[in-house]
Amino acid sequence: MLYSVVVSALSLLTTVNSLYPEGGERIFGGTETTIDRFPYEVSLVYYGDHICGGAIVKENAILTAAHCLDNINLRGLKVRSNTTYTSEGTLSYVNNVTLHPSYVGNENDIAIIWVEDSFIFTDSLRKIQLPEADLDPVGGSLAMVSGWGFLSGHGPNAYLLRIAQVPIVDRKVCEDLYYGHVHKNMLCAGESDGSVDACNNDSGGPLVLDNKLIGLVSWGIGCGLPNYPGVYTNVAYFRDWIDKNLV
């Protein structure tokens, strides 16, 4: 019986992975907010459509999930900033992207997007602080995830920026829930009953604790399913790689 449960979970993981090139994750059970509360949040726009989120970490650089850039033609990619909506604001052209060299599947799911023109910071447009390399959030700590992802299982995207407060899930607990598929370069957050989660088209969006970018929406099994919290790229784990590339 245990073996059949494991096989079912792995099948779901495969299904979720196959959907990633079409977008990422959404805010499930969240509320509307405004960009002045989350001025580091950006929308990745591909040929006019919102596909993922990201976080400003430098005047000309954004962190996002690497899988957001799968099968992407950079000529069709822009960054929308300084707006609560999936319209308005400022559209920036993308100059280049830097994928983690060991990115594959769910592993090392992190990338840097470089914009052509540097951001001019204001109250509603700012970078976010990075965590220390040794940060390991305590289970139960309340973090914030934000984005413009789907409002229901198959869309549409949210028009207004949405947020949700999600508890950090103890690492060992999450590793057990995902049968060992959660590694040190990942962290988990979400309610055990699935009432608050991230899902389609929020991928790459920020998970923030104590005003620091601790995670990027990465993957999971379904959206808002009990005992399957959202899995995030663990930004602290990649701090050395980020510092070496943000020069």
From TrEMBL:
<keyword id="KW-0645">Protease</keyword>
<protein>
    <recommendedName>
        <fullName>Peptidase S1 domain-containing protein</fullName>
    </recommendedName>
</protein>
<keyword id="KW-0732">Signal</keyword>
<dbReference type="InterPro" id="IPR001314">
    <property type="entry name" value="Peptidase_S1A"/>
</dbReference>
<dbReference type="InterPro" id="IPR009003">
    <property type="entry name" value="Peptidase_S1_PA"/>
</dbReference>
<feature type="domain" description="Peptidase S1">
    <location>
        <begin position="27"/>
        <end position="247"/>
    </location>
</feature>
<keyword id="KW-1015">Disulfide bond</keyword>
<dbReference type="InterPro" id="IPR018114">
    <property type="entry name" value="TRYPSIN_HIS"/>
</dbReference>
<dbReference type="InterPro" id="IPR050430">
    <property type="entry name" value="Peptidase_S1"/>
</dbReference>
<keyword id="KW-0964">Secreted</keyword>
<dbReference type="GO" id="GO:0006508">
    <property type="term" value="P:proteolysis"/>
</dbReference>
<dbReference type="InterPro" id="IPR001254">
    <property type="entry name" value="Trypsin_dom"/>
</dbReference>
<dbReference type="Pfam" id="PF00089">
    <property type="entry name" value="Trypsin"/>
</dbReference>
<feature type="signal peptide">
    <location>
        <begin position="1"/>
        <end position="18"/>
    </location>
</feature>
<dbReference type="InterPro" id="IPR043504">
    <property type="entry name" value="Peptidase_S1_PA_chymotrypsin"/>
</dbReference>
<keyword id="KW-0865">Zymogen</keyword>
<dbReference type="GO" id="GO:0004252">
    <property type="term" value="F:serine-type endopeptidase activity"/>
</dbReference>
<comment type="similarity">
    <text>Belongs to the peptidase S1 family.</text>
</comment>
<keyword id="KW-0378">Hydrolase</keyword>
<dbReference type="GO" id="GO:0005576">
    <property type="term" value="C:extracellular region"/>
</dbReference>
<keyword id="KW-0720">Serine protease</keyword>
